[in-house]
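Translate sequence into structure tokens.
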Amino acid sequence: MPEYMFAIDPGQTLGYAYDQLDEVVMSGYFNLKQGEKTKTRKRAPSLWGDINKRPVVFYDFLTKFVPQHIQVIAFEDKGEWGERIPLREFVMFKTTVILWAHLHNKEFYPIDVSDIKSVVTGEPHADKLQVKACMKLLTNIQVRNHNEQDALAILYASKRSREFTKSLEGRVYSEF
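Result follows.
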């Protein structure tokens, strides 16, 4: 029986990818940081600008975008977060995912960035271009930006990693 996942590349522009019931992969991105442009070219206020409202915005995103058939929420764990996004924001993101998953009877699956790169390229220190090239070969999916690409890599790596782990369940290994 297949395991249906929703993968998230978190950030101010959030990439996502997920399995549909017909086994077609859907992907996209969602801009959490910008308000809507008005005719005067000014931006409407963005909830993302208020750090205390970010978990609410993200929780609402999960509620609206995650299909009912999804069983697992996969996301990039710490890895390079310390350099790109402040730890406080990462903790709020991770806590929101765990809370949402618990309240909606979904499993959550954090995967380290080096594990994603290892599964996709075979090299834990691969750069974004290597990951992009490998994902294009593996999936043949056209993406619109790097956030969507990263979410596809998270989905692919999470599925392969979990399949490998499940194949080992119940086995006993001996050094003799």
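Note: Residues 5-168 form a domain with the Nucleotidyltransferase; domain 5 fold (CATH 3.30.420.10).
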